[in-house]
Amino acid sequence: MREGGPAMLKHRSGLFLALILFTSSLFVALSPSLAAAQEEPEVYPEGDMHWDMPDENLIFLDGVNADEATLTRVRPTSSTPTGNELIPYTGGSPEMVLTAEALPATDSVNLTLNISAFFHFTLNSPVITYCKQTSLLNPGGKATTLYMRLLVGDKEIMSGVSNSVVLSTNDAAAPHNLTIEEQEVEFILAQHEILSLEISVEHNCEGTQAQLNWGSFGSMSGLVIKGDLVRPDPRASVDDLGFAHIELVPISPWGSEEISKVGLMIFGPVLPDEYDTDDRDLAIESFDSPMGERKVEGNRTAWTWVSTKPLSPGHHLAKFCIQTIDGNTLSECHFIGRYRFIVPEEETTIFTAALWMSLSSLLLLIGWIGFSLKEGIFYPPQMIGAFLVMALLLIPLQMQLPDLDNNIHAGDDSPTSDFSLLVFNNNSNGTSISLSQLL
Questions:
Q1: Is 321 left (phi over 0), alpha (psi -120 to 50) or beta?
Q2: Are residues 257 and 216 part of one domain?
Q3: DSSP bridge pairs for 119
Q4: Which of 150, 251, 361, 392 has an alpha carbon within 20 to 30 A of 315's alpha carbon?
Q5: Which of 180, 202, 227 is the last residue of a domain?
Q6: 275-284, pLDDT tens digit by residue?
């Protein structure tokens, strides 16, 4: 036992040293893989998108007076108010001034919004400072206050009371601003339902009239909405021929009527880890307006585009520029978005036109020569060489043929060749009209 002790210790030391060497070797071998895994860039998936959207949406009062007042999404551009309503002394209690309705909703949407309101007032009085001067003994006693209710159908979804202001100006370009504080509102606006606004005003300055103004960029009145009142929903697919089919569905209570202009640019191919690009060298196509439209689920309208040529495999970006009817008219794009889609690599198949057509040509030539030799027919070498050259020259043409695949599918909105139709009537023998003219 004593003699085996040092030998056993030496054996264990050898095993321990071997274990250390193995662990070190394993660590060295795995280090590059671990480093590569840590440094591997993020690959953005198909459908990845990003939108730069306005901070707020607006709904404005419109019409010439209270009887004709409506709600509109169209931003006013007039320099002077296009509508107003006079409110006399109300004797310490609010009086109904107007009810304004928006157009019936075209889409059903579930909304969570932060809504506030603003209304511009001036004073209609022979002495503009009358209310301010006579309120010195009773501060605030000559003030004007606005009461608001917002309804969907007959259901109230929001109400509020504005700040009280003693009116002291008749300048519509610099009016008093009565505001309703922001509130979070959750509601469903179903198709064909109507959003309406009720306004009551308490005007406590006797002998004068408060004037509610709207319809100009200096005296606009209406609702300020923070949240996704308008939400663009892009989609993209690629057919078997390599054409990109891109759609954009504006999800909003009033659908496509919210949008005044929409443009599209296609960039690619970009690297899978490239978040965005504005490289003009990668710009493939640009569209100033949609090529068409179609109805999708929920009876919504989708704008459609189809690339005019097949796209090369890889990641591509569809970049949108959208103008809304309530946005600043000086801004080219109110919504800027990008949507990533992928053109897949061509699948390998044994039914390759270049392979089979080339082999067929050469095999037919060899078979013809073999059959001739079997029958004892000897053609001149020059003729055989000429046929061989012809078979080789056909190979580049055969490589341009599509693969022999019976699963080729083109989308319903794939581009079609233009053609002409003959139109006959009683006064002529027939005229020609093209498909592009009909569209």
A1: beta
A2: no
A3: 178
A4: 251
A5: 227
A6: 999 999 999 9
